[in-house]
Amino acid sequence: GDSVTQMEGPVTLSEEAFLTINCTYTATGYPSLFWYVQYPGEGLQLLLKATKADDKGSNKGFEATYRKETTSFHLEKGSVQVSDSAVYFCALSDQDGNQFYFGTGTSLTVIP
Amino acid sequence: DVKVTQSSRYLVKRTGEKVFLECVQDMDHENMFWYRQDPGLGLRLIYFSYDVKMKEKGDIPEGYSVSREKKERFSLILESASTNQTSMYLCASSLPPRGAEAFFGQGTRLTVV
């Protein structure tokens, strides 16, 4: 079945450091890929998405590229801020858009 | 903006109680979901619904039931709460077309004592 595997955390970075959170997926057909962010005590918010191979999703300085050849959707940011501290979830939806599969989440802490 | 609203942010219930978690969305979405979130386990799907009065079991339905009498409302029911159901519960909704994202409520932190 479809599934998502993402980098284990927690991750601790200094402010202005480069961030990469790895995400790989297994899916049949043509899934859509997502990154969600969860701030403490809150629900999940969409950070970015990509719906076909080679698409790049971007938002708030975060980027991820849909790589079909490596079945990956790694999240990157060039310079993290303290306010980026949160839990990040990689997810996919199946090719019908009716079901979602989530990774286990990666906790990021950014220290000043 | 799409809004998904869960009825409570925090709940404390006693073992054996029947517990209702309510979720309402305001954008006419066909699909609605209930997940539970536990440390190290990510989000696990309890139940989902593609339409009114329709429901499908997810990965961990045991001990739970759901109700969807109206399109905008999806209720999760714990028939007899147990301490191992202490968790964060997240409701979400989405439209079926491929590429559409899921929208989440703010979560309900349930503690069963």
Quick take:
The complex is a heterodimer of chains A (112) and B (113). With 112 residues, chain A is an all-beta fold.
Report on this structure.
The complex is a heterodimer of chains A (112) and B (113). With 112 residues, chain A is mostly beta strands. Chain A has strands spanning 3-6, 11-14, 19-21, 23-26, 32-38, 44-50, 56-59, 62-65, 75-77, 86-93, 100-102, 106-111. In chain A, strands 2, 5, 6, 10, 11 and 12 form a 6-stranded mixed β-sheet that branches. In chain A, strand 10 and strand 11 (100-102) form a beta hairpin. Chain A is globular, with a radius of gyration of 13 Å. Chain A starts with a strand and ends with a strand. With 113 residues, chain B is mainly β. Chain B is 0% helix and 53% strand. In chain B, the strands form 2 sheets. In chain B, strands 2, 4, 5, 6, 9, 10 and 11 form a 7-stranded mixed β-sheet that branches. In chain B, strands 1-3-8-7 form a 4-stranded antiparallel β-sheet, with no helix packed on it. In chain B, a hairpin with an 8-residue loop joins strand 9 (87-94) and strand 10 (103-104). The mean pLDDT of chain B is 94. The interface between A and B is medium-sized, with 25 and 28 residues.
Which features characterize this protein?
heterodimer, A: 112 residues, mainly beta, 6-stranded mixed sheet, 4-stranded antiparallel sheet, B: 113 residues, 7-stranded mixed sheet, globular
Structural class of chain A: mainly beta
Low-pLDDT runs of 5+ residues of chain A are none
Discrete helix count of chain A: 0
Measured by residues with Cβ under 8 Å of the partner chain's Cβ, the largest interface is: A-B, 25 and 28 residues
Computed structural class of chain B: mainly beta
Poorly predicted tracts of residues of chain B: none
Determine the strand fraction of chain B and express it as a percent band: over 45%
* Relative helix content of chain B: under 10%
Distance between the termini of chain A: 41 Å
- What distance lies between the first and last C-alpha atoms of chain B, to the nearest angstrom? 37 Å
Instruction: Report the major sheet of chain B.
Output: 7 strands, mixed
